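Sanity check record (used in CI):
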Amino acid sequence: MLPIERQRQIVVWLEEEETLSIAELSRRLNVSEMTVYRDIRPLLEDKKINKTSCGISLATIGTVPANSCTYCLKELNNRHPVQIITNDQKVEQLCCPHCGLLRFRDIEKNVSQIICRDFLQNTTISAKLAYFLMGADFHLNCCQPQVLTFDSLKYAEQFQKGFGGVIFQFEEAVDEIVKRMNGNRSSKCHQSGGSGRDK
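Expected output for DeoR/GlpR transcriptional regulator:
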């Protein structure tokens, strides 16, 4: 087995078991402990794994400080957080819809559910059924470009009349936030029924 193959196998085992000792890896791979240390050095340098008192562990979301956003690492004190539940039932906490949409794009295939809060009523809603307002002249002192979520298109449009911005449905919002983070901006507001317009 080549070093790169051993490294991949180590990562697979860590994903399944969380922590492994160097001695156990040496036994499983049928190589010396010195070889294991050489194999894990690139993984440590790339911050894919961490050293622990018991051996090594995978550097995952679990390494994010408690009460911090998984995406931007900001403290979770926003009243409009987002939660992502993965297929293996792990829960990621994100500080706002901006980070929630970007994180969703990163791990889309591993997402079971994405949950957010209605901006006006503070009720829990499925992000996939929500309406997202970007560019409103209403500042929450959170991540930019700012994103507000609404359970109802009617309320999103009423808020838009007062504060401006563009309304998107979920998939469009994911695409739009990525574009805006890359310096591009859509000129249309896509709403239910397929008609898009800026208000």
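The CA atoms of residues 36 and 189 lie 54 Å apart. If this sentence no longer matches the regenerated tokens, the check is flagged for review.
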